[in-house]
Write a structure and sequence with these properties.
59 residues, alpha+beta, Arc Repressor Mutant, subunit A, two-stranded antiparallel ribbon, 46% helix
């Protein structure tokens, strides 16, 4: 899927910092949950839907 916004716009929309969004996406990539296509990393592939669904939100 293609992300509809760049990371900065996602961060602004969610009220987060760019660094927080980048760390979260990088962590999901490290865990093997997401993969990136292309150099701009706006196209992602969900590699492990079950693991993604099982993540718990943290405060």
């Amino acid at each position: 899927m293609t992300l509809p916004m760049c990371r900065r716009d996602i961060a602004d929309y969610l009220g987060l910092t760019l660094e927080t969004v980048s760390r979260a996406l990088s962590r999901l990539h490290e865990l093997g949950i997401l993969g990136f296509i292309g150099n701009n990393q706006r196209q992602i592939v969900i590699l492990d839907r079950l693991q993604l669904a099982s993540l718990e939100l943290q405060d």
